[in-house]
Design brief:
The chain is mainly β. It contains one helix and 31 strands. The strands form eight sheets. Strands 1-31-30-27 form a four-stranded antiparallel beta sheet, with no helix packed on it. Strand 7 (154-160) and strand 8 (163-176) form a beta hairpin. The protein is elongated, with a radius of gyration of 37 Å. Residues 32-75 have low confidence and may be disordered.
Length: 434
């Protein structure tokens, strides 16, 4: 055989053997790799199922153990004094007030509708109060509301770019065959009552002092420096005063229609007397006295039910109760009867109240700061109770029912609050006992 051919054949055989050995080693290693990869995949899957099963059992056990603490499973907890929530408002509720007999509660809502809830003798905790809807004329939203001579007549303040307006709605009774229907309609209206300035507060009172004839007097306080007095039934302007301060914050009238007081971002509170003629009409509004004692701006005030005291709250962190039943015309100054610290948390940046209102018996003071509602003992200044988040937004108005309202089998004093959260809430008065 040719030596060259022999070498060539030997080389081919050796090469084939080398290739064969190489591929055998490669496939053997590949099989090992595949097995090493497949086994971990199977093991985690088994472990994953085991872990999932363990977590599921643990979760079931956890839920079963702590199901009472779940917020979704449990109804929302209410404050013990919260007895009812009047829903159905389409926007922020800017004001509310009770009728003099306590049987009706009117609310002023930014959705442009006045609602008059008929409480009558129904339980205050009832969920089915009937209410009357009174649509407002097109324009700005309502900012204040007050009943006039009876529970069927209401004065509403609205704000628009052109200025503030006052509307008085009364019921026009019409007979429709066999039944009688009540249709509220505008009895009088006044526009640009404070030029282009907005109305901040609107309060009404039954004029019963001196020679007053028992008519309802309405006080509108503008964001400027002027305050005006109106005859509730006729809409006639009875008088006006100027605080001569930088701007007004609020104004209120005493329940007997005698005094008018204003808080105007100063430490002093000015008080005027409404003087009535023999025929019962308003004769004049004269300066009566000033309440001096606070060290910082007075943010809110309210009169006592007997019209003889004023309660003020200031940014100096104090509450003062004043006796205004003095002979001011003989230069006798009003006296500070009591001074209490405002019982709000000390970490608040602004330690003050936004609104005050006294219970019909004059023994409980309700006060608000943002969405916080508090009740205080007027005699001792003791904090009776607090609702930290009485509403889901700022409280815009509060008012005590002038008379007790049935709750269950008892008659209770009831406070109403309105808020930007589109709700009105009814609260029962806390106990004065320690």
């Amino acid at each position: 055989m040719d030596p060259v051919l022999s070498i060539t054949l030997l080389s081919i055989v050796l090469g084939a053997l080398i290739v064969l050995v190489f591929f055998k080693s490669y496939f053997s290693q590949r099989r090992s790799d595949v097995q090493s990869i497949a086994e971990p995949e199977l093991q985690p899957d088994h472990k994953k199922k085991s872990v999932k099963s363990s977590q599921l059992n643990s979760k079931k056990h956890h839920n079963k153990t702590h199901s009472h603490a779940s917020d979704k499973d449990q109804p929302r907890k209410h404050h013990p004094l919260d007895v009812n929530t009047l829903k159905g408002h389409g926007d922020a509720v800017n004001g509310l007030c009770f009728s003099s007999n306590g049987r009706s509660l009117a609310t002023a809502c930014a959705d442009g509708v006045i609602r008059v809830f008929k409480l009558d003798d129904a339980d205050a905790s009832s969920k089915s109060f009937k209410f009357l809807r009174i649509p407002l004329p097109a324009g700005g939203p309502p900012t204040g509301i007050s009943f006039t001579d009876d529970s069927s007549s209401i004065v509403v303040a609205t704000n628009a770019l052109s200025g503030s307006s006052l509307y008085m709605f009364g019921e026009e009774k019409t007979t429709n065959e066999t039944k009688q229907q009540s249709k509220p309609e505008i009895k009088w209206e006044n526009h640009k009552v404070h030029e282009k300035r907005a109305i901040l507060t609107l309060f009404g009172a039954t004029a019963s002092y001196g020679s007053a004839d028992g008519s309802t007097i309405i006080v509108s306080c503008s964001e400027g420096t002027d305050i005006k007095i109106w005859h509730g039934k006729s809409g006639k302007l009875c008088g006006s005063v100027d605080t001569n301060q930088l701007k007004n914050h609020m104004a209120a009238i005493s329940p007997n229609g005698r005094f008018l007081a204003a808080a105007a971002f100063t430490a002093d509170v000015k008080v005027w007397e409404i003087v009535y003629s023999k025929d019962g009409s308003v004769k004049e509004v004269s300066s009566a006295m000033q309440l001096k004692g606070h060290k910082s701006a007075v943010t809110c005030l309210c009169f006592s039910p007997n019209s003889e005291q004023i309660v003020t709250a200031s940014k100096d962190g104090s509450i003062r109760i004043w006796n205004i039943n003095v002979r001011y015309h003989l230069s006798e100054d009003p006296k500070t009867l009591k001074v209490f610290p405002i019982p709000l948390p000390a970490d608040l940046t602004n330690l003050h109240y936004d609104r005050l209102c006294l219970s019909p018996d004059g023994r409980i003071l309700s006060a608000t700061h943002g969405s916080t509602l508090q009740w205080l003992n007027v005699e001792t200044g003791e904090l009776l109770d607090t609702a930290d988040k009485a509403h889901d937004g700022e409280i815009t108005s509060l008012s005590w029912a002038p008379k007790t309202i049935p709750i269950g089998n008892e008659q209770k004093m009831v406070l109403a609050t309105a808020s930007v959260d589109k709700k009105v809430k009814l609260w029962v008065a806390p106990s004065l006992q320690a």
